[in-house]
Amino acid sequence: MSDWIDIAALSDIPLRGARVVKTRAGCVAVFRTASDQVFALDNTCPHKAGPLAEGIVHGSAVTCPLHNWVISLETGHVQGADEGEVATYPARVEAGRILLDATRLRSERAA
Amino acid sequence: MSQNIIVIGAGMATGRALEHLFDSDADVNVTLFNAEPRGNYNRIMLSPVLAGDKTYQEIVTHDSDWYAANGVTCRFGERVKGIDRTAKTVTAENGDVLPYDKLIFGTGSNPFMIPLPGHDLEGVIAYRDLEDTERMMGLGADNKVVVIGGGLLGLEAAAGMAARGVDVTVVHIMGHLMERQLDEAAGYLLRKALVDKGIKVMCQANSSEILGTNGRVRALLLDDGTELPCDLLVMAVGIRPNVALAKEAGLAVGRGIHVDDQMVTSDADILAVGECVEHEGAIFGLVAPLYDQAKVAAQTIMGQEAAFVQKELSTKLKVTGCDLFSAGDFADGEGREDIVFRDPGRGVYRRLVIENDVVIGAVMYGDTADSNWFFGLIRDKTDISDMRETLIFGPAYQGGAPLDPLAAVAALPRDAEICGCNGICKGTIEDAIAGGATDLGAVRSVTKASGSCGTCTGLVEQVLAVTLGDAFVMPTAQPICGCCDLSHEDVRRMIKSQELKSMAAVWQECAWKTVDGCHVCRPALNYYLIADWPLEYLDDPQSRFINERKHANIQKDGTFSVVPRMWGGITTPDELRAIADAADKFNVPTVKVTGGQRIDLLGVKGEDLPAIWSDLNNAGMVSGHAYSKGLRTVKTCVGTDHCRFGTQDSTGLGIKLEKALWGAWTPHKLKLGVSGCPRNCAEATCKDIGIVCVDSGYQIGIGGAAGMDVREVERLIDVPTEEETIAVIKAMSQLYRENAKYLDRIYKWMNKVGLEWIRERISDPEERAALVARFDLSQTVYQKDPWAEHVIKRAETYQPVANLTLEAAE
To answer: In chain A, which residue's Cα lies nearest the Cα of B552?
Structure first.
């Protein structure tokens, strides 16, 4: 079962940018790509815990600001020669509003 | 017994529905109402009429003979006043009451008028019907028109009027034209083509008011204060289904009149077709689905089984010389991949979006000859896994052996043009090679091939490879990154020579292979565009590394460091108190004195940045740009103020230099030092630019470094006055800004171009003055305190966009 909650307006996040959502277990980064796709991932790089929301968004990937690891926004997998994975959360846009699945946010973090 | 059919609205959908009924010899008796005083015409061909490519007579679909032959009672120029669904009658404007068996709504849509102040002035029109078109056709070379809306209709109106010599400006609120059908790259090419036609295009422009004199439109006022004078203002911002009559009659209505798959409304005897309907949540503005609906409606009336199915749609713009095509869904998404092809020479852009080995979207500009084939792949959901490698080149390249670019070049005839800029043919290059020009540089100097825009460099190299065989080794110019094949230098040359003023322009004209670059190329391009087009290009924070986006240095734990500027290393007790107060208030864990003679507050939380900046601003301090590829500090010694050896006022000069240069963006960080005497206490001789004061004046050196490489400056020039020192350093900074590769410090750049070349530029009085003028111009835009600006305009972007910890606590 999913529990979609309204987080913010799509326009609150710049094109090719990200903003952070605070949760009890840590921060989730919500990204907006050039084509208005929205993705939600843990705001923590698997390398040295860099804040991914501060990275440069290109295509459907983000580059960590600390050491340039590139992470796929779709899968959370680290791309290229590096290895690692970031948790992803369901996100969608409806009528210009960004929705996140609160059930998934809570359950995955509790696990 | 024949059915009485009443049709409300003579549009393209109802016209087609009637054709189907009469072609099937349906036993019907039709009355056709139309609010416009004429019958059916091909509304989508109004744009060619406006442009003068067609006449109204050529776009009439049904003439009076046709209506007569099919026994249609025409009531043109008459509206329907009301509908009595129980009695199944329609009341006309003149009071006639007509019975129906079936009623068809084809009321179309109304243009949406933005309720700006002044929208009801005379001379403010939509682009919808023949009256609007004729109004625009009445204009000529003496007239100015503003079109609000850079979508399909607005652009067709603009191009049609421009073809008549009218001075047209298009004002569009979004970042690129036709954003619903095109991506940024295709939008850029379209804009370029329209500008070539003499149309002015303003994107990201917000209209605030329509100004008038004596009840007539005079100008459009934008929210930035720009006034665009006009004799006519055309609003083409979209359409709304016309549902007023249906609503009044009590039919189910949402955005449009609700219909089922048979085109029947909530009343079983009333159907609706065209732009007035809403089917499964969708409304319709393009003609293809309207024709499908018309056919289904006709079949339903005749008692045949039929169902309307929504299909993939494609769009083409009817503007001569702008070939564009878009279809399907071209957003990025999970599991989707892009194939991008750009041919800058021909102005071609193609992008395919693939999901599960099926093409789901396509955007094409410049060469749309294959668009039908691609549209077929989308519509039929063809599995493209076998032709993936060559798919983007179109149907001509499917099947057969994969293409070898060298073989293709080898097959070219001698008179095939290789370099378009200089008109150099393959034969000329071959002759030059036979004459001893065996590398790219030699061919370029002998023939000029690839010497201008440089995009044919690859081709020239291939001619060399084919002609020389193994004797030729392809040079490996290091491209900026995997997104392109051009080096930094090539791209900078293109930006200047082709006047590329946006990121999308660079991507297209330099044949980028990705949709929107990567973390390597985007900051470089953003810098090049800022440096070369300070007035035209708008800085893109999303293409900047976080430090320059948030104006603070990110630390390993994600906190930031904050360094206020201390001009020339001079501070005051008040400033120090304010810094101490800020450090206390925001629990700054570490306060450190930097090598550049200022104070660093380390460990500030991202959310606190605007607040701490605000406190420092209030004490008169601004950003120290300690995070930037730009001017950092001007380190000084105390000079003649206090020192017994000082020869000049080194502190004063340092402060003047810092006040002149701060805020300027440079290829890499820029550090200066001014020492008051050759004892060099400010360590000026290992700065990017270092000044050593002597009795006779100022010795200026460049290219010092004290990082991974340690280097002493080389003497550039000696000058007698402070004033001239400042001019030389401004000119030097501008020369570096305009020519160096992104992330090259001055010493690296100097190794490439040579100190002598730099000295010649700076020593020439005219060149120096021109460099200073360009530097000053850029500073009018970029010399501003980013902290103050972010405190006012962007403070909320530093906060989380939502906080679920609060929600969970409830």
So the answer is: A54
